[in-house]
Amino acid sequence: MTTAALIVAAGRGRRAGGPFPKQWREIAGAPVAEHTLRAFEEHGLIGLIAIVLHPDDLTGGNAFQARGIRVAHGGADRAESVRNGLAALAGQGVDKVLIHDVARPCVTRDVISGVIAALEDEPGAAPALAVTDALWQGANGFVTGTQDRAGLYRAQTPQGFHYDAICAAHAAHPGGAADDVEVARAAGMRVAIVPGDEDNLKITLPGDFDRADRILRARNGH
Ligand SMILES: Nc1ccn([C@@H]2O[C@H](COP(=O)(O)OP(=O)(O)OP(=O)(O)O)[C@@H](O)[C@H]2O)c(=O)n1
Ligand SMILES: C[C@](O)(CO)[C@H](O)COP(=O)(O)O
């Protein structure tokens, strides 16, 4: 049986700005998507990779296919892109799948390993970091209240699942989920929390490119 990685890369990166989507912008000597793919290609326990591309980006799909990566068409939202990617993995002997944002190029080997290890015992597992800062509510530039931080986590990807179970969960979900953990839980699946990493940021806003660039250059000794 095979553990697959499903990289969702069909977003437009509107919050990050720039002339083209954030996954194609270069940091630390390569496009964001390339760093993300390499993290999974170089992990010895990942047997198959699929990437989901926006229809405007599909011409770039041939180069991915040439290196053995399956290519799926992006959907109108993240969940639809995930469903298309899961379908592209059907019939390939996949029993576990790690669903990862292309916009998290600094994912570490340890985070990937932690998710895979937890899937030996649980149907779902995902990395997260406990919230350590105090939390406030605010309005119009002033603090209006405080929020208990106990038991709160910052979610990351890759979010890993037993393949058949997450396919069924996505097929049954009405839509609007923030991530695949929400979809899985709606279907009654248990999802274990495994250690995330501060470096596993999602490039979301313009300033995130520099931070990811610094992390990757430091890791590669530049
Ligand atoms: N229709 C969509 C929307 C998002 N994604 C992917 O889901 C992840 C979610 O991260 P996010 O920061 O929300 O990405 P974008 O949708 O690209 O960003 P924005 O919301 O700023 O436009 C990204 O890897 C993105 O490429 C996708 O595959 N298909
Ligand atoms: C899947 C995710 O990365 C978990 O942190 C996140 O939900 C992606 O989308 P968002 O729009 O930035 O919340």
UniProtKB/TrEMBL annotation:
Coiled-coil region: none
Sorted UniProt keywords: Isoprene biosynthesis, Nucleotidyltransferase, Transferase
PANTHER family: 2-C-METHYL-D-ERYTHRITOL 4-PHOSPHATE CYTIDYLYLTRANSFERASE, CHLOROPLASTIC
Organism per entry: Sedimentitalea xiamensis
Name this protein carries in UniProt: 2-C-methyl-D-erythritol 4-phosphate cytidylyltransferase
Gene name as annotated: ispD
Tagged with keyword Transferase: yes
Pathway: Isoprenoid biosynthesis; isopentenyl diphosphate biosynthesis via DXP pathway; isopentenyl diphosphate from 1-deoxy-D-xylulose 5-phosphate: step 2/6
Gene Ontology MF term list: 2-C-methyl-D-erythritol 4-phosphate cytidylyltransferase activity
EC number, UniProt record: 2.7.7.60
Keyword Nucleotidyltransferase in annotation: yes
Reactions performed catalytically: 2-C-methyl-D-erythritol 4-phosphate + CTP + H(+) = 4-CDP-2-C-methyl-D-erythritol + diphosphate
InterPro entries: IspD (IPR001228), IspD/TarI (IPR034683), IspD/TarI_cytidylyltransf_bact (IPR050088), ISPD_synthase_CS (IPR018294), Nucleotide-diphossugar_trans (IPR029044)
One Pfam assignment: IspD
Site (Transition state stabilizer): 15, 22
Positions MEP for the nucleophilic attack, annotated site positions: 149, 202
Family from the record: Belongs to the IspD/TarI cytidylyltransferase family. IspD subfamily.
NCBIfam families per record: ispD (TIGR00453)
Its job: Catalyzes the formation of 4-diphosphocytidyl-2-C-methyl-D-erythritol from CTP and 2-C-methyl-D-erythritol 4-phosphate (MEP).
